[in-house]
Amino acid sequence: MTTETRQIDRRGLLAGVLAIGASSVIAPQTAFAMLGERRLAFRNVHNNERIDARYWGASGIDRDGLAEINHGMRDWRTGDVASMDPSLIDLLVTLRDKLGASPRTSFDLISGYRSPRTNASLRAHGGGGVATKSQHMLGKASDIALPGVRLETVRSAALSIGRGGVGFYPRDGFVHVDTGRVRTW
Ligand SMILES: [Zn+2]
């Protein structure tokens, strides 16, 4: 391959990525970062299930990887699977990177998707901080911890990203992050 065709190939690839960025959930300004692969690893603390999936590659979204993540983030009480917000998955990746952890580092997942049934039951049993219209029910929230990293550090890093909601639950051992409005509790 000559230098010239290589340059054209790269320009063509970049144009394609930018086009995807303009027409989907991925903002154009993040398109450069999207050239690489993106993966997310986590362990569901309730059933000890482990997920380590690549959900973005050179040719765009990896649907198999996303499906794996959706399955791993399902409502573990009822088995209901939802399509998680891809922005939430990106947010977790950004958070992990900010904490200086490698792409294969596994989050502890305390809660991902919550079905309306589970949410109602948690509210009925006096679950503090369980909202009527929980972002968990929309597939836009997760309660997480990063083993070996202080919860306060996870929370500060999440706040510094400035995207969505960040809730701090030190007694329950997790930080809630979601892609709803920017807010803190
Ligand atoms: Zn939560």
What would you note in describing this structure?
A hairpin with a 4-residue loop joins strand 6 and strand 7. It is built from five helices and eight strands, in the order αβββααβαβαβββ. With 185 residues, the chain is an alpha+beta fold. The protein has an eight-stranded mixed beta sheet with strand order 3-2-1-4-5-7-6-8.
Structural class call reads: alpha+beta
Beta-strand percentage range: 15-25%
Mean pLDDT across all residues, rounded?
Answer: 86
Number of domain modules = 2
Short account of what is shown:
This protein is α+β, with helices and mostly antiparallel strands and 185 residues long. 35% of the residues lie in helices and 22% in strands. The structure holds zinc ion.
What key phrases describe this protein's structure?
single chain; 185 residues; alpha+beta; Muramoyl-pentapeptide Carboxypeptidase, domain 2; 8-stranded mixed β-sheet; 8 strands; binds zinc ion
Please write out the topology.
Layout: H1 3-23, E1 38-44, E2 50-57, E3 60-61, H2 63-72, H3 86-98, E4 106-111, H4 116-124, E5 141-145, H5 151-161, E6 165-169, E7 174-178, E8 183-184
Parallel strand pairs: 1-4, 6-8
Antiparallel strand pairs: 1-2, 2-3, 4-5, 5-7, 6-7
The structure holds zinc ion.
